[in-house]
# Entry
Amino acid sequence: MTKLQAKNIVKHFDHNGNSVLALDGINLNVEEGDFICIVGPSGCGKSTFLNIVAGLEKPDSGEILLNGNQITAPGPDRTMVFQEGALFPWLKVIDNVEFGLKMAGIPKDERRQISERYLDMMQLTKFADSYIYQLSTGMKQRVAIARALAMDPEILLMDEPFAALDSQTRDLLLVELQLIWERTKKTIIFVTHNISESIILGNRVVVFKNRPAKIKKEFVIDYRRPRLAEDENLQKYYHQILEELKSEVMARIKDENL
Amino acid sequence: MSEKLISKKTSHGSFDDAANAALFLAVFIGVWQVVFMLGIWPKISLPSPFMVAESFVKIIWNHSLPVSIGVTLARLVTSFAISIALGTLIGLTMIKFKGFGKTLSSFSAGLLSFPSIAWVPFSILLIGFNDFGILFVVVMSSIFSIMISTYSSIRNIPPIYLDAAKNMGAKGFYLFRHVTIPAATPSLIIGIRQAWSFAWHAIIGAEILMSIVGLGHILSVGRDFLDMGQVIASMITIFAIGLLVDRFLLFKLDERVRRKWGLDHHR
Amino acid sequence: MTPKIKFGIAGIIIALVIILSFNVNSGNQLSHNADNAVNVLRIGYFPNISHAQAVIGLGNGDFQKELGDIKVETQIFNAGPSAIEALFADKIDVTYVGSNPAINGYIKSDGQGLRIIAGAASGGTVFVIRNDAGINSAADFAGKKFASPQLGNTQDVALRSYLLKNGYKTTENGGNVTVIPANNPDIVTLFLKKNIDGAWVPEPWGAKLVKEANGAILVDERDLWPNGKFVTSQIVVRADYLKNHPDVIKKLLEAHVDETTWINNNKDQATQIFNVQLEKLTGKTIPSDELQNAFSRIEITYDPIKESLYTSAANAFDLGFLGDKKPDLSNIYDLTLLNQVLEEKNLQTIP
# Structure
């Protein structure tokens, strides 16, 4: 069943007085249970697209349909894990995870149950009463994931969530995320500039073309799970996507030099 | 584990601090006594520490000091509350109406450094020679601090907090109360502490010029009657109260927030 | 140094200070060296009618002429306490000033710090009430608000004593009459804004309030004193200066007596010249009709009218302004030099 449809999303930006076309008609269908990775060079508009899906930005034209209904505003049915710094430093870890639940009016005991479950899933039970500053970057992102999942969203959005992590923590989280996906059966859209990440995580990898962004090519990654970074069979996908991106980077370099 | 270690250090630290303060004060008083005995200034201009202590006893005994402290603090708390309420309101208006906000904030340097005493003649003419006139001076002296701090604190909130909250469905007043305010709090507290010190300056100045009761008044009366002992005793009281309130109220508040946020946590 | 040692040292220092404070007379100081020959006389005064001799004589050079080689330096004050402060802080040597600041200074310095050496003015204060304040007599003071130029000054003591004598208590003492301090220009504003109902003021403010602020004179203070005489201002000198330079002071007194005589013999001219000098000092003049009116109630004299000062002091003591002990003013006057000058001029001396 089609969970999310992006129909002809167009977005302009105002750059030093000039109107620059950022997204040039993005069309994307996301099926239920998909793990879609969006890959592209930095600044190509993939985060903008994700913000539009989240409802944090509005497209100039086009629409986003979730379960057939058009979305017009941000909401807990499309929770997002940001790249960094989106946890509230004035709240403890457990209160951060419960934030959305409390807002939705869920009673205290139920809230506590749900948030403890997800903290447990992210192996953070011992840190429930810690404050954010006491956590490492990896742990913070785990909390962010727990928070996003606790809202039981229709679709989970992730905007380069592992970009600021060291490679060991990232590798660990890549495995954990796959396990969580299998366990919760969530539909996920994951934005990254890291090709390895995209092929480890995604069952579909969508390559974004340079600004103005358009979907250049889509790859289906049909491989067993959990996938590990050093897995050689993934190499062929890696090279294919790399080729696509290389021409993008070249085009971008030409662009900037003009 | 580390929390325990930290608290042990600070409790030792504060004993150390107290010892340093005690030594400093004792040396200060000692030097004062020596200067007095050398007779460099006539005793009518510079009394001895003992004479100041006598003045203290006198004004405590005849109730004028406790009463004055009460009056001054009551006025101060009232005007401070008004400043916070109005200042915050105007600060929020500055955010809502961007042109207004920008204009007012461009005047901020002049508004913040405007000397509180300069409000007195205006207040006498506009409001009158009474408690309301004094409240006016104190409010005008502290309100800009609150206003501008509210404006800049809220504007400087990292947008990502608001995005994350909206993403979870927060909007309107809920967003304001549960995200905007807590996120702005560390910065707001700085503004409040600044406003407090402005208000404290202002109340004493206004009382010297416009009042028949209060700490400023006791100071002024001491001077009118050439009672330097009373003047110095009032000054010490004024200093002590200003320090105590800041140290034990505002500083603690600031510290609590900073601890939660880990603002002083350096790895 | 460990904290305990620091506390210990602090304790020892404080103990020493306490011992010193008790053993030595509290207030024992090593004495000053006497000045040697001096060639400057620093005079303080107010731009007031009650300091007319100073305003005129210092302004037009009469005093400097009399003092010859001794350079005259002047400093203007607006209130008695500041003048006395400056006197004791050795910023001026002699000043024109009202009674209560002089009394305070004398007491505060245990009778050692200053001496009154001549009078300068008598009378010239009035209790003015606002015409529409509903006050016809002393029976109508309940619930009213009055002002005086400064807490504890000469007019303030007069006002409060007057209230007391008429059976009223001020609000600080549980009564129903409010007395607030306000400087003279503010008093005019407060009258106009109807914020106060009356004020006890020195001239020319009395005349001004009557003419410009809808005021009426309820009490001319002269009516409260025997022969209508009471000291409003006088000349006060720092005791050590008097002891060390009597010759300079004598010259000053000669100038002062001459100026007094001249003013009394040339009232109209004196009034005009006063205004000229006033403008030099303050940038403002007093309208001549107000000035004439004001001068009509004040007497420029060199008689210190000693009895009135003692009475004023007793009043201030009764109001609680002078501390717990009844003040002993026995040595506050030193009129030796004044009387020498008067004798040399064949004028009647002051007993």
